[in-house]
Amino acid sequence: MEVFQSLGTQFDFLIGAFNSNQILSFASCKQLGTYNVCVALSRSYPLAKKKKLSITDLYNEKLLCVSSGDCLNIDDFRKNMQMFYPQIILEDVGYFYDLDTFNRCEEEGCLLLTLDAWDIIHPSLITLPVDWSYQMPYGLLCQKNPQNKLRNA
Questions:
Q1: DSSP 117
Q2: Which residues pair with 11 in a beta bridge?
Q3: Do residues 139 and 33 touch, judged by C-beta distance below 8 A?
Q4: Are the CB atoms for 103 and 150 separated by under 8 Å?
Q5: Beta bridge partners of 42
């Protein structure tokens, strides 16, 4: 959060996913596109041999996921999983991921809900697409009320 709070002082712009209510409370955004929601897992995990996962591959698996209440896209994802796929074990990891989150995925041998843009974020994890259509918007983030020269850029 410190990085996002530095918008307008240390940084003019950042590129990233921006569907967090916390981030949007003090940042403005210009959407550039969407990231695909994927699953990260250890390279040694049996599912890592697949090119693409199906939802049934996730049955009886622990899927680490952003906690509910901050991100509308993830909240919708969680509701759908709980309603239609209760065989998938969702576990909250807080509102934001850090290095410990990715390390935990690798160390515990569980799955992590992630974005395709983060596919090389951890050397021991592989990111695989899943047969679903969940996406997350991304774009340029800047301070909530940017100066005129930034607003017009």
A1: G
A2: 7
A3: yes
A4: no
A5: 125
**Cα separation of 32 and 146, whole Å?**
18
Per-residue b or e along 43-71, where b marks 16 or more CB atoms closer than 10 Å to that residue's CB: eebeeeeeeebeeebbeebbbbbbbeebb
Q: How many C-beta neighbours within 10 Å does residue 17 have?
A: 21
Which amino acid belongs to residue 90?
Answer: L
Q: Which tens digit of pLDDT belongs to each residue from 9-56?
A: 777 777 777 776 666 666 777 889 999 999 999 999 999 999 999 999
Residues 8 and 13: their CA atoms lie apart, in Å, by 8
Task: Read off the amino acid at residue 151.
Answer: R
CA–CA distance from 95 to each of 48, 49, 70, 78, 107 (Å)?
Answer: 26, 30, 7, 13, 20
Cα-Cα-Cα-Cα dihedral sign, residues 50, 65, 117, 45? negative
Spatial separation of the C-alpha atoms in residues 72 and 95, rounded to whole Å: 12
Specify whether the CB–CB gap between 146 and 9 falls below 8 A: no
